[in-house]
Amino acid sequence: MSDRVEIKPYDGPAGGWGSAKSLTEILLREQIPASGATLLMHQNKPDGYMCVSCAWAKPAKPAVFEYCENGAKATAWEVTRKRITSDFFAAHRVRDLESWRDYDLEELGRLTEPMRWDQASDTYRPVSWAEAFAEIGAELRALEPASTVFYASGRASLEASYMYAMLARLYGNNNLPDSSNMCHESTSVALPESIGSPVGTVQLEDFEHTDCILFFGQNPGSNAPRMLHPLQDASRRGVPIITFNPFRERGLERFTNPQSPAEMLTRSETRISSQYLQVKAGGDLAAIYGLCKALIATDDAAREAGRAGPIDQAFIAEHTHGFEAFAASVRSKGWDELERRSGLSRASLEQAAATYARAKATLGVYGMGLTQHRMGVETVQALMNLLLLRGNIGRPGAGICPVRGHSNVQGQRSVGITEKPELVPMDKLRALYGFEPPAEKGLNTVEACEGILDGSVRAFVALGGNFIRAVPETTLMEAAWRRLRLTVQISTKLNRNHLIHGEVSYILPCLGRIEIDKQDGRRQSVAMEDSTACIHGSRGYAEPAGPNLLSEPRIIAGIAKATLPPNERVDWDVWASDYASVRDAIEATYPDQFHNFNARMWKPGGFHRPIPASKREWKTQTGKANFVTPRGLSADPDTEQSDPDVLRLITMRSNDQFNTTIYGYDDRFRGVKGTRMVLFVSHADVARLRLRDGQTVDLVCAAQDGVARRVDGFLVLPFDIPAGCVGGYYPECNPLIPLWHHAERSKVPAAKSVPVRIVPRPTV
Ligand SMILES: Nc1nc2c(c(=O)[nH]1)N[C@H]1C(S)=C(S)[C@@H](COP(=O)(O)OP(=O)(O)OC[C@H]3O[C@@H](n4cnc5c(=O)[nH]c(N)nc54)[C@H](O)[C@@H]3O)O[C@H]1N2
Ligand SMILES: Nc1nc2c(c(=O)[nH]1)N[C@H]1C(S)=C(S)[C@@H](COP(=O)(O)OP(=O)(O)OC[C@H]3O[C@@H](n4cnc5c(=O)[nH]c(N)nc54)[C@H](O)[C@@H]3O)O[C@H]1N2
Ligand SMILES: [Mo]
Q: How confident is the model at residue 505 (pLDDT cuts 50, 70, 90)?
């Protein structure tokens, strides 16, 4: 905690002057000269580099400044002038660094040399790349393939991702968990069953044609700020935006475009949400049922009166399956139950349903507020059902829009990073590369953690990320992690996962995407897939952070060559020297999706991977879009019987972080300055539990499974959220989350409804 803690409600809009000021501060801190501003001119432009922050769509006709406050922060973070050298490592024992804050570790700057942990001195020591690859290869060859995990964090390019997946499969496993296992895996399980597509159906243009937006559990002001532009335009056209979120997020209330001089000078704001429904954590399933119930009732009444109702009967008859069972389930639920579970009134849900019923084309947009729950998959499917009721898919302005996280997390899955062999064209791999790809299902994130805990996983290779900090069950996981035989982290900055390490541990520093990547003297470019399945080329513009960095493809090739027997059809050196050849390989593996890849990647706005559901072609078992009926509406069957003192903890991001990367200790929009150890508590619970504003409390997990989980030292902050919910920041709260507390069907950790109790400290 900094010495300057200040809690003060923030009156400004999202964007606006606050955004401009925050950005200036970070550019100064990272010692970025004025050329930083020139660099930013290339951000998210055709022929430029794709932002390393979020995956939000990049328009074909970009604005002059096509970046947001947080995208610029992410750029500054990567192109910082600060460096960590081997001198720093020589001077600090790893054990001592463990007490450093996440912020301080990454603030040291960019990693510059490959390092190996030395047991005798407990320090990281420089090694040559050749030595590093040789030892990693020898270690991997000595292990059973099933005991090694290849994690990917979601930032690596399509080219690096394809090579990484090939490395794992040639080595002999599908152990390719990625960050989407903690994120939108609920989407990837839900939507194929519903509409036969693992990704959303919406494109950026749909925001121009829609006339209603249903917005669930995503915080665009902090986590996808460029999305505020299409939302602002929609709102100005009079499009109703109905938001479901326990928190009143500023970006969903009002916005001033910091890149519009006129708006900045006149301090004009656009309201974003037309109706704001502060649903209880995990109450969305019941809320969506409420909307469906109101819609079905209106339709029944209209049809009795001989009129057409709001339900698109023709679409349902022609395109869907399972409507009757779903409608029966909806009719069977009483308003009492729906109100209790959602925390919303019948009147407010009926009002929202009436707005939806009037709209010709509706978008359903959502983020972690839906996916990171025990019933995450069911909730996404319920939202899809709501859209299907009015035929809101496969036409302009309508569809489902999961807002993805990392800048290429969706793309990684498109080119083979997945633990599920059925999602990969193995026959193609067999034919192209003449080997028998592993058929057995691999480990996802939660299963990898289980394997580390029970000792069956022995080696962990990470293509980016900060796994140990991102996963639940921090205390048990950190202890088990130290028993791993081999840990290899391909990274740009020092983080906690380098300090918590295995017996043999390497840090392999890589180039970032914004940097110029030359191989054999030729400048390389890479490609990325955004949230709307558009593929974009990206070319680095900044000087590399050091002469001894390698690109991710080069590092993957180095490990592969040292580990795998030679295969004359897989030339790792060619791939690492010319990324266009990897794109050819991707095209050969996925001809329908990536035909003419090298030429099309520079098309302004990207090229769109074909999504059959967006053309009303249903690649499902029934051949139709399915109404999937959930088993029940309980958000969390484990804490169902419910003691009122068990609260649901929402763990989320501040406006000053990118996942485990902490840029600073302020959360401007929520009025918090100088600390991340706050606990947002509803006014009702503050009164009921006799808490005081600013009091320090501890939190324990309320699950009764024999494991004690605790995080100490939160400042109570009374806040406008529904009773029964509390909020805190990720990753500080992760020690409170049991590993088994995940979405039942996708295994996404249920980070938005952790059962906790507040432990007040005795007053002295
Ligand atoms: N600057 C920045 N950008 C980012 C990231 C970052 O950390 N920083 N992370 C990236 C990644 S990997 C991801 S996945 C995305 C994450 O972006 P988001 O999906 O916005 O993730 P969170 O901040 O975790 O919070 C989600 C929102 O859900 C709400 N919420 C919580 N519980 C519920 C619930 O039960 N129901 C509803 N309806 N709402 C709920 C919270 O109040 C919050 O507004 O952003 C990406 N972009
Ligand atoms: N409680 C709770 N836990 C959560 C969440 C939550 O909402 N609540 N959200 C979950 C979600 S949605 C996600 S996506 C995960 C995120 O989990 P991860 O993706 O594993 O974590 P990040 O914090 O994004 O990883 C940051 C590190 O990536 C490395 N890095 C940055 N850029 C590059 C690069 O270009 N190349 C390479 N090789 N490395 C790079 C840096 O060393 C940096 O320290 O966390 C999950 N955990
Ligand atoms: Mo994510």
A: very high
Tell which atom from ligand 1 comes closest to the C-alpha of 184: 14
Residue showing tokens 């009079």 = 238
Give the span between the Cα atoms of 502 and 491, in whole angstroms: 16
Q: Tokens standing for 69? A: 């406050």
Mean pLDDT of the chain: 95
- Residue of minimum CA distance from atom 12 in ligand 2: 183
Res 641: pLDDT: 61
- Ligand found nearest the CA of 402: 1
Which pLDDT tens digit goes with each residue over 280-328? 999 999 999 999 999 999 999 999 999 999 999 999 999 999 999 999 9
Distances in whole angstroms, Cα of residue 188 to Cα of each of 184, 586, 672: 6, 21, 34
pLDDT of 188 over the 50 cut: yes
Distance, C-alpha 728 to centroid of its chain: 17
Which residues does 160 contact at the CB level (< 8 Å), separation at least 6? 463, 526, 551, 552, 553, 556
Q: What is the pLDDT of residues 381-404, one digit of tens each?
A: 999 999 999 999 999 999 999 999
Nearest CA to ligand 1 atom 24: 652
Closest C-alpha residue for ligand 2 atom 7: 652
Domain extents in the chain? 110-180+408-602, 185-407, 640-760
The CB-based long-range contact list for 709-714 (8 Å cut-off, 24+ gap) reads 709/473, 709/475, 709/735, 709/736, 709/737, 709/738, 710/735, 710/736, 711/735, 711/736, 713/677, 714/677, 714/678, 714/679
Mutate to test the pocket of ligand 2, among 176, 659, 662, 739 (most ligand atoms within 8 A of CB): 659
Residues 424 and 674: their CA atoms lie apart, in Å, by 46
Q: How far apart are CA 538 and CA 44, in angstroms?
A: 8
Q: Whole-model pTM above 0.90?
A: yes
In angstroms, the first-to-last Cα distance of the chain is 22
Residue 639 has pLDDT above 90, yes or no: no
Q: What would be the CATH architecture of the domain defined by 110-180+408-602? A: 3-Layer(aba) Sandwich (3.40)
CATH topology of domain 640-760: Barwin-like endoglucanases (2.40.40)
Q: What is the pLDDT of residues 322-373, one digit of tens each?
A: 999 999 999 999 999 999 999 999 999 999 999 999 999 999 999 999 999 9
Query: What span, in angstroms and rounded, lies between the C-alpha atoms of 109 and 124?
Result: 16
Q: Whose CA is nearest to atom 25 of ligand 1?
A: 652
How many CB atoms neighbour CB 598 within 10 A?
17
Tell which atom from ligand 2 comes closest to the C-alpha of 737. 1
Q: Which two tokens stand for residue 250?
A: 């500023």
Dihedral sign, Cα of residue 83, residue 89, residue 90, residue 93: positive
What separation in Å is there between the alpha carbon of 155 and the centre of ligand 2? 9
Classify the phi-psi angles of 465: left when phi > 0, otherwise alpha if psi is within -120 to 50, otherwise beta: left
**Among 179, 413, 445, 741, which residue has the most ligand 2 atoms within 8 Å of its CB, making it the best to mutate?**
179
CATH topology of domain 185-407: Dimethylsulfoxide Reductase; domain 2 (3.40.228)
CA of 217 to the centre of ligand 1 (A): 7
